[in-house]
Amino acid sequence: MRHLVVPTSVAIFAAILGLEAIGCSTPGDDPGPALPVDPAAIYAQMCARCHGLDGRGDPELKKTMPVRDFSDPVFQTKGTSEDAARTIMAGRNQMPAFGGLLSPPKIQSLSGFVRRLGRAAPGGRRPADPLPLPRP
Fold first, then answer.
1. Does residue 1 or residue 42 have the better pLDDT?
2. Where does 39-119 sit in CATH, by number?
3. CA dist 30 to 20, 25, 26, 33, Å?
4. What is the pLDDT of residue 36?
5. What are the DSSP E strand ranges found in 18-124?
6. Residue ranges of domains in the chain
7. How many CB atoms are located within 10 Å of the residue 68 CB?
8. What is the pTM of this model?
9. Which of the residues 73, 99, 119, 128 has an alpha carbon 20 to 30 A from that of 56?
10. Cβ neighbour number for residue 42 with a 10 Å cutoff
């Protein structure tokens, strides 16, 4: 009868692999607490450069390339949040893809934000417009 001899390094590797398989993790694997998604901050950082803070598109940039105006009635009536999410994720024409930079929850939140950004609020004010200050 023959006995199987396993080198020590192979046995240690197998033990570590087994611990990983059952969920043993290192402190570096902890993602930390969940943070709330702020679509306005994401928009200001990643979108406003081309689409403008108000969502109507940067006027100078629009002279050289097509830039989506989120207040466009066609965009508001025919576009959906899912369409916006797909465009944010994959890009379109000259717009870069952000799917590798933003998580799905951030993309979903941002897509809803751009849809709301283009809608006029009561009184003709849009959600991104500052509220008028009362006169003294």
1. 42
2. 1.10.760.10
3. 14, 8, 8, 9
4. 79
5. none
6. 39-119
7. 22
8. 0.63
9. 99
10. 20
Q: What angle do CA 111, 125, 76 make, to 5 degrees?
A: 40
Fill in the amino acid letter for 75: F
85-109 core/surface letters (b: 16 or more CB in 10 A; e: else) = bebbbeeeeebeebeeebeeebbbb
Contact in structure between 122 and 77 (CB atoms under 8 Å): no
Residue 132 has pLDDT above 80, yes or no: no
The β-bridge partners of 92 are 95
CA distances from residue 95 to 25, 90, 118, 125 in whole angstroms, order as listed: 39, 9, 18, 28
Cβ atoms < 10 Å from Cβ of 29: 7
The CA–CA distances, whole Å, from 23 to 36, 97, 115 equal 27, 34, 41
How far is Cα 28 from Cα 10, in angstroms, rounded to an integer?
A: 25
Kindly state the tokens that stand for 16: 């570590």
The two counts, helices (H) then strands (E), for the chain are 7, 0
